Amino acid sequence: MKATLKVTGMHCEGCEGKIERMLPRIESIADVNADRTAESVEFDYNGSEDILSAAKEKIGDLGYQVVE
């Protein structure tokens, strides 16, 4: 499955890189693309809504805001 989340608070390439490195550490998440100008994070995941919730939590833990 593919997910796109609106994420605010990314200001530079380092912010994008942090999200792109950390999200794949969650089992079943791959191909992460963070885009600060579009304020979005796209990724593929295999699994349930629990994986999506874990991704949102991880992004929040990194200091960014997922906008619902």
Percent in helix: 25-40%
Strand order of the largest sheet: 2-3-1-4
Q: State the end-to-end CA separation.
A: 18 Å
Tell me the CATH topology: Alpha-Beta Plaits
What's the average pLDDT? Answer: 96
How many structurally independent domains? Answer: 1
CATH class: Alpha Beta
Question: What is this structure, in a nutshell?
Answer:
It contains two helices and four strands; from the N terminus they run βαββαβ. The chain has 68 residues and is α+β, with helices and mostly antiparallel strands.
Tell me about this structure:
- The protein has 68 residues and is α+β, with helices and mostly antiparallel strands.
- The chain has one domain (2-67): Alpha-Beta Plaits (2-Layer Sandwich), CATH 3.30.70.100.
- 34% of the residues lie in helices and 34% in strands.
- It contains 2 helices and 4 strands.
- It has helices at 13-22, 49-61; strands at 2-8, 29-35, 40-45, 65-67.
- Strands 2-3-1-4 form a 4-stranded antiparallel beta sheet.
- Strand 2 and strand 3 form a beta hairpin.
- The chain is globular, with a radius of gyration of 11 Å.
Question: What attributes characterize this protein structure?
Answer:
68 residues; alpha+beta; Alpha-Beta Plaits; four-stranded antiparallel β-sheet; 34% helix
Topology:
Elements: E1 2-8, H1 13-22, E2 29-35, E3 40-45, H2 49-61, E4 65-67
Antiparallel strand pairs: 1-3, 1-4, 2-3
